[in-house]
Amino acid sequence: MATSMWKTSVLLGQKLPRFLRLSAICRLSSSADTALETSQVEYPPIGPTGNELSYITRMESIKNAATVPDMIYLLNKKQCWNYQLKPQCFHPNFLPIYKHATKTHIVEGLPNYVANFVNSDSVGQVAANVKDSVQNFALGEMMYDYRHRTCNKDIFNQPLNKSKGFVDNMINHFLLTEIGQSPHVVSGEFDHDVEVNSFWDREDTRYQYTGTPLFLLRTREPLQEFTSKDSELSVGDVESYPYKPQWYSIFKQHHNSKCFPGLKYGNPINYGHTQVHVYQSDKEKMLDAGGQPYIDEHVLGQGLMTSFGWMTGMSMYNKHYWDDDLTRPMTCNTIVTDGQNFSFFCYQLNTIALHSRVSETNQLRNVCWYTKDAQLYEKLTEDGEVVNFNVDVLKTVIGMLMMPPGMNMLEAEEKPAQNELEES
User: Fold this and answer.
1) Tell me: the pLDDT tens digits for 138-158?
2) Three-state SS string across 363-400, please?
């Protein structure tokens, strides 16, 4: 107020009392000095916001959890929106969102070690011994079993039921042969028709996976990595998916996330080896709807999604999650079949650190090797003949089940580079 009075008096040519003039001058000089000092101040960097600080504190408490059940409880005790990812999505061109959600790079062809082992003499001898039995199972289930021809056609006369019956008989027979005498199979465990659940955060989105494999083979020792964690296949990024999941008919539910990789915690046989999934759709209808590329995309998506979902659950049972990444890769084999056509997958989980807080500095990506659909046989005749039975497909099934864990696959002789499907 004194300053304004002084300015007014000067303009009007009036004199102010001495104490008011001195006070106004001091205030004007002090304000000028303050402005000069303010322009030279260096402020500290802006710290995390309240939500970020809360997230960091929560992740630290989860990382310090005493046991795996405590860690999983802290991760899923708060209900949130979970986008439900199934083994199959029936929309065309859905594969990019599966690749983005799992950060997976796709490579056509099997890894070198797997291809060499499948073509070994020991696997070929076992395939020759079980070939006739497999043909009889195919004829019995697909041609002569009348439980698929009952009056309830809509329930029993489905390709899914026929495929399950054939694969059931085939795998159960394998366990009575040299395959069942393999050390890792004797000391391991087979799960039949079990539900598998896992969840993870990709950037700021929570995904929930639910699948039902027909068979799971678990072992006491893990399979070694198919490729080095520092190789060109394991390092890089995948193509981002700019759209929200709900725009692609991936529905969300508000519930507690679930993690169950097919076994209860505490089981010492807690490493995934091989899983068998039955294709859940009628391929003849899909062939009429979109042709063979439509089928190939869905089979590839099912193999990718089921492999990642199983390995993510297994990684949590080994006390890893998206803020405490894997120390070594986890690998598994996956077989997808409809009883006649077989596709084979080898998956290497290099990282689950996919949250936006850590994904920008994480250069690792997961890798999925695959083979396209191959027919086990061309057709079955009413005379009991199996036309064009493909022994190579049978050898691949047997080779994946017999593959011993605990071996260094990277010592296998390097071959020319794999034929990559894409560089994303």
Assistant:
1) 887 766 655 555 444 445 446
2) CECEEEEECCCEECCCEECCCCCEECCCHHHHHHHHHH
Q: From CA 231, how far away is CA 167, in angstroms rounded?
A: 36
Return the H-helix or E-strand segment holding 419. Answer: strand 419-420
Q: The tokens of 419 are what? A: 């034929």
Helix residue spans in 206-329 (DSSP H): 283-317
Cross-sheet strand order for the sheet of 196-202: 196-202, 205-211, 80-85, 252-255
For 42-87, what is each residue's pLDDT tens digit?
A: 778 776 666 666 777 777 788 888 888 889 998 888 888 999 988 8
Which residues, other chains included, contact 363 with Cβ-Cβ below 8 Å and sequence gap of 6+? 235, 236, 237
Rounded Cα distance between 42 and 63, Å, is 36
Q: Counting beta carbons within 10 angstroms of the beta carbon of residue 362, is it exposed (0 to 12), middle (13 to 18) or buried (19 or more)?
A: middle
The Cβ-side half-sphere exposure at 308, using a 13 Å CA radius, reads 33
Segments making up each domain of the chain, as ranges: 75-197+210-420
CA 400 vs CA 151, 346, 396: distances in Å: 39, 9, 6
Instruction: List beta partners, residue 196.
Output: 211
Identify residue 18 by its one-letter amino acid code: R
Please name the amino acid found at residue 333: N
pLDDT digits 0-9 by tens, 276-315 = 998 876 666 667 666 777 788 888 999 999 999 999 999 9
| Tokens at 62, concatenated | 């989860």
